[in-house]
Amino acid sequence: MPACARQASVVTTAYNGERAVLAVLRDVTEMKRAEIKIMRLNEELEQKLLDLKNANDELESFNAVVSHDLRTPLMAITGFSERVAKKYGEGLDDKFREQMGMIRASAAKMERLIEDLLAYSRLGKRALQQAPIKMNGLAGPLLWN
Question: Which is the most buried residue in 19, 23, 84, 91, by most CB within 10 A?
Answer without folding.
Answer: 84
